[in-house]
Write a structure and sequence with these properties.
The protein has a two-stranded antiparallel sheet. It is mostly helical and 549 residues long. It has one domain.
């Protein structure tokens, strides 16, 4: 075992504890300790805080090794302080064991030789720039990828550390997956905060969590392909489940609203496209809260409470990064672009890029191909037949067959169980959620029908919600449910391990890769081209300027 492997393994768990430390820091401002033992919730709150901090701090300073090391140490201090303070809480150590077990299982996904194609193009260079420079205006003119920054770059930039250097730049995706898995497992196995089986009535939420868990760990097994898209879709699964569960439950508390806003903030910050989910989530929240107060007081409650201010700060900082890079508040939406700044992307270029995204998602273009008349191709439904042949039957059909296979397995398992005597009642909340998902699916299909733009989670949830209601119509004891759910969880994680092991074996054959010796993924000089251009422009004629253009 090499030093590089030990560095990767050690920092993996050190950063894990750091994230939890900042999650506890957020919760320390709340009198409610509901989430203290729920490490999944604590972890995602910690990620929310670190992303917000990353955006804010980068305005003034680069995320250097020293800065990041201090940040890590503060997070560790926070974790051990809260751990010592609450050491005598029952089952705390059991929860820690469960936490480390989940992340140990996921560690195999970090052993890789090659990242996805966008990683050298702009994911690495953007993240690396955050470690070298504070906020610069106009860097969107250097690279198309720099026009659409993602919060995952800002989080990754905090992991630029001594010894490890920039080889931890894809840690964020694993942490998002891991914390989501923990939350879903607690719902699937009905563990309460004290790590005991909560033998309350099994609901369709438990089945929906189980289906989502199976899907996420089987389909999203390769961390190197998560990019800026799959992490957001993982959180959309979680947001949908939490909204349905919280708003149907009579145990809904204010701290649950904090977590809901944190999820929304994380999703929106990961990619500009996901602002759509923020817009569509508002009616859902209003539907629930308006029952308790009139519409005006509901709006005041949503907007004026402190939790919304956390969400607002993050969204403001995200918009600021878009503006600094492109002159647009939300690139590439043309009407949000301001032309009167030296660094502004010309309106014509914005329109062309918007058309390119639409053309690409409708199977009309790729790096080596483009239809002869793009404007005509993307108008109306002219693109549908080609999209069906080149994209639907190559990618979406495989996804649907995979989903149907999962549903078939569960159908066979639960088929022989009798139907419940009491008629299953579908709440208005479920109808509302399903209606919103269908509405978003239509918008997705018409404007950007690519799986990376929300297709995975939308298609899966369209199947999973009604099937979860069907499973919930079966009469089953808690003991039998628990055994079946546990077997399916183990099966899903086993598939995750097997697929990653097969990937590593394949990479060893292709690249003559030695994972325990050459642990870090490949980095070459081409990864630093953008930073060199920035350095040259910044120091041109010996004059330093924060505005590159």
């Amino acid at each position: 075992m090499s030093l590089n492997f030990l560095i990767l393994f050690s920092f993996y768990f050190i950063i894990l504890l750091t994230i939890l430390g900042y999650g506890y820091f957020v919760l320390s401002f709340e009198k409610n300790d509901k989430f203290f033992l729920n490490f999944g919730h604590v972890g995602l709150l910690g990620i929310f805080f670190l992303i917000t901090y990353s955006y804010l701090s980068h305005i003034f300073i680069p995320h250097s090794k020293i800065h990041n090391l201090i940040l890590i140490l503060i997070g560790l201090i926070s974790f051990f302080y809260h751990f010592k303070k609450n050491f005598r809480i029952p089952n705390l150590r059991k929860n820690l064991f469960f936490l480390f077990l989940v992340f140990l299982i996921l560690f195999i996904s970090l052993i890789l030789k090659k990242n996805h194609d966008d990683f050298p193009y702009y994911h690495f260079s953007y993240t690396y720039n955050l470690t070298q420079e504070s906020l610069n205006f106009g860097i969107g003119k250097l690279n198309h990828g720099f026009r659409t920054p993602s919060s995952i770059f800002y989080l990754n930039s905090l992991f630029f550390l001594p010894f490890a250097e920039y080889y931890l730049f894809n840690f964020s995706a694993v942490f998002i997956l891991g914390f989501t898995n923990i939350i879903l497992l607690q719902r699937i196995l009905l563990f309460n905060a004290n790590f005991q089986n909560d033998k309350r009535k099994i609901t369709f939420i438990n089945y929906l969590s189980l289906l989502s868990f199976i899907f996420i760990n089987i389909f999203f097994y390769r961390i190197a392909e998560h990019g800026t898209d799959r992490s957001a879709q993982i959180l959309i699964f979680l947001l949908s489940i939490n909204l349905l569960d919280y708003f149907q439950s009579r145990n809904y508390q204010k701290v649950d609203l904090l977590f809901t806003y944190a999820l929304l903030g994380l999703i929106v910050s990961l990619k500009s496209f996901y602002f759509l989910y923020f817009i569509f989530s508002i009616p859902f929240i209003l539907f629930f809260l308006e029952k308790k107060r009139n519409l005006l007081s509901t709006l005041k409650f949503i907007i004026l409470n402190k939790y919304f201010s956390y969400l607002f700060i993050l969204i403001f900082l995200v918009i600021l990064s878009y503006f600094a890079n492109t002159g647009c508040l939300l690139y590439p939406i043309s009407f949000t672009c301001l032309e009167n700044f030296t660094w502004s992307i010309p309106p014509n270029d914005v329109s062309k890029m918007n058309d390119w995204y639409e053309l690409w998602s409708k199977a009309g273009a790729n790096p080596n191909f483009r239809v002869q008349n793009p404007e005509q191709y993307i108008s109306g439904f002219n693109w549908v037949s080609n999209w069906m042949n080149d994209y639907f039957f190559n990618k979406i059909s495989d996804l649907i067959f995979g989903i149907l296979f999962i549903l078939l397995i569960l159908f066979i398992i639960f088929y022989n169980f009798e139907k419940k005597k009491n008629k299953i009642q579908i709440s208005n909340l479920v109808f509302l959620m399903y209606g919103l998902l269908i509405l978003i699916l239509f918008e997705w299909f018409y404007n950007h029908p690519a799986l990376r733009y929300g297709g995975y989670c939308l298609i899966a949830l369209i199947f999973f919600i009604p099937f979860s209601l069907y499973l919930n119509s079966k009469e089953i004891s808690f003991k039998k449910y628990f055994k079946i759910a546990l077997i399916l969880v183990i099966f899903s994680l086993s598939i995750f391990e097997i697929r990653n092991y097969s990937r590593i074996v394949k990479e060893i054959k292709i690249y003559d890769y030695k994972p325990f010796k050459e642990t870090f993924y490949t980095i070459d000089h081409n990864y630093f081209k953008i930073q060199k251009r920035i350095d040259d422009l910044k120091n041109k004629d010996g004059v330093f300027s924060k505005t590159i253009f």
